Fold this protein.
Amino acid sequence: MPRGGKRRGAGRKLGSTSLEWDQRFWIGQECLRVQRVLVAEQNGVHLPPGELTRIALDKLLVDAQKARLAERSEAFNGILEKYELLRGLPKKHRRNMQDHHEEWLEDVRALRDEFGANYISVPGFPAYRVRNRVLKTVSETATKRYARPVSVRMVRSCWDKYNRFEREVTSELLDGPTSPDV
């Protein structure tokens, strides 16, 4: 099948820019990792030296978000204190302290009512002007890793496809299988 161009040999060469599925998957994951690192640096979150896994990065960002919310909200700060108090007790003492346990739960319920909802949404860190830097960084890294040119456009399409794949998997895990034969 022709790939463009009227002259013989013109256009994109067959297979010259295609990536294997595992390479595309790695590029999508790397984009998310680099984005989280840049957002953390942008918002002043201290990152330990060395390579961080996605779970470790997410935990650092969530802890920083909780700390930021605790500084701004007394009610959330109270809930965190009660949670740490309950969590700090050994399991064998938790069972023996039913009277204190009920008091603490009432305190948490009262603080929850101050929020006006049954759940607390912790606002995330905004990612301002990070996408282009992520694409360029991952493009350079992938070019070195695979010893072939990987353009910014290829990285963007890999990232978009990875995000789509991740959303589909997440929705399937949360909602269950969508096929009618189940």
Remarks:
- The two ends are 40 Å apart (CA to CA).
- The helical segments are 21-42, 54-72, 74-88, 91-96, 98-115, 131-146, 152-175.
